[in-house]
Amino acid sequence: MVTAIRDILPKMDSMIRPYDSLAEADAADDAYYASLAPQERLEILLELIEMYRTTQGEDSERLERVYRIDELERR
After folding, report:
1. What is the pLDDT of residues 28-61, one digit of tens each?
2. Where are the domains of the chain?
3. How far is CA 17 from CA 5, 9, 40, 48, 51, in A?
4. C-alpha angle 8-11-17 in degrees, rounded to nearest 5
5. pTM of this prediction?
């Protein structure tokens, strides 16, 4: 069974803002997320995790553990 992404994502208000450059658009994104309260940012993160798990099915009951070990140089 294939689920369309539009069926998973919540309905959002359409908002179009023209920018002169990609850097200006990125700065606007950064300013928007910086203006959110920590709780709002956490809620967005949890929603993204839930959407990811929904699209992955049974295989994603938990997040994959990712780590790496870096060797440090002796001084």
Report:
1. 999 988 999 999 999 988 888 888 878 877 665 6
2. 22-56
3. 23, 21, 22, 23, 26
4. 120
5. 0.51
